[in-house]
Amino acid sequence: RSSYSCCYFVLPCCFFDFHGKYSRRQSKKTQYREYLDFVAQVGFVCGFHVEEDCLRIPSTKRVCLIGKSRTYPPTDCAVIDKQITQYINSRQTCAVVTRDERVGFNHKEHSDGVHKGAGSELPDNETAGTIWMAGFQPREKVEQIRNCASLPRDFVDDVVLSVANLLLNATPQKSCSNMHGENGNTWNQGESLSLKEVAEHLNKETLKRLKSEYGGLQTLLKNSHQVFEVLNGRVHIRDWRREKPSRKNKPDVKRRLSAEAFKTRLCWFFIHHPDGCSLPSESCPYAHGTEELR
Prior knowledge:
alpha+beta; three-stranded antiparallel β-sheet; 8 helices
């Protein structure tokens, strides 16, 4: 409804109507096929020639619907817009009746494009050009990233350092024998703590900031893959000596990308861990000092 020149592409996935979950009406079709037909019907009612295509993507929901041209001339925009308004109102009425579980509701009245009968009793939306549907709230044009990736770097670094020190000092040093057997040295891996225990040691301001992110503290720690591993709700300091070696038969593309990233970031353990890095410089994928950075 934004303009006559508007075209659209939609990849239907979750089964939703305008006002809630889509209610099935035809048992002879699969739920997916019935929903695709419903979305196609919406496009047709809105005056589009609706085309269907199948995308080459690794998903079971890969049928898309495309509206590239209209079924009516520009002069009929006002008439069609009124038709669309009635259709939207009919879907809203259908949702309300379904929730109330009223007996005797005839779905057929609402499945043939333009709503008839009860639609004439609904008030027309006189400002359809500006208010498309009562109570409808479109999402923002720019979707806010809330996976901790947009948090300031210094804030993330402070949380990582705080959590790491918490794990290292949680109990008397838990030393791991150095697998390389270098003069019997030991490397402190610290203790593991639950996410709840870690959160209890962070200040309220930090927790409040993390709460606004999806996944919060857990997401931030998982993003800090170099330093931590989060398993079954418990946080551990990652010991890179125990990481499984990469497969020799790894695809060329992945092998090339891995090689390109080698030594392009500083090693957190070399800088911050009291025992330094558990790996010798030649084995660590991260740079031991700025002189090694590529």
